[in-house]
Design brief:
With about 120 residues, the chain is of the alpha+beta class. The chain contains four helices and four strands; from the N terminus they run ααββαββα. Bound molecules: ligand H2B. Keywords: Lyase.
């Protein structure tokens, strides 16, 4: 991909990953993060996260269900955190390679679509 756009990422599908896919390091993550401004990279450069205040517990649980559907559909699964009854944090990393792959940015773009409503 040249400069990734949110539109192009949303249209892509994750590739099955049990290793052997290229790691996207912090430098290579920059253009992806430019396309996905609500996501931030952790200090190690191995995970991206997005947090949102859903307003109430029921809406937070609904979001988790929607994210679970995206994850199952793509067979790429985020770590999901629900704290303080309405705060959801979504972490994405590719466990099989111990870092970021394009799958993480594809799922992030699809989650952004869900959050846009
Ligand atoms: C074959 C299949 O794609 C792999 O087992 C997937 C399942 N979901 C996954 N999700 C995440 N986040 N990382 C993985 O390495 C991973 N592996």
């Amino acid at each position: 991909m040249n400069e990734p756009t949110v539109d192009a990422l949303t249209k892509k599908s994750c590739v099955p990953c049990e290793g052997g896919v290229p790691i996207i390091d912090a430098a290579a993550a920059k253009p992806y993060l430019a396309a996905l401004p609500d996501w931030s990279l952790d200090e190690a450069g191995t995970m991206i996260s997005r947090q949102t205040n859903c307003g109430n517990f029921v809406k937070a649980m609904k979001l988790l269900g929607q994210v679970a559907e995206v994850a199952e559909d793509q067979q790429h699964h985020p770590d999901l955190h629900l704290t303080g009854y309405r705060h959801v944090r979504i972490d994405l990393t590719t466990h099989a390679i111990g870092g970021l792959s394009e799958n993480d940015f594809i799922v992030a773009a699809k989650i952004d679509e869900v959050l846009k409503g």
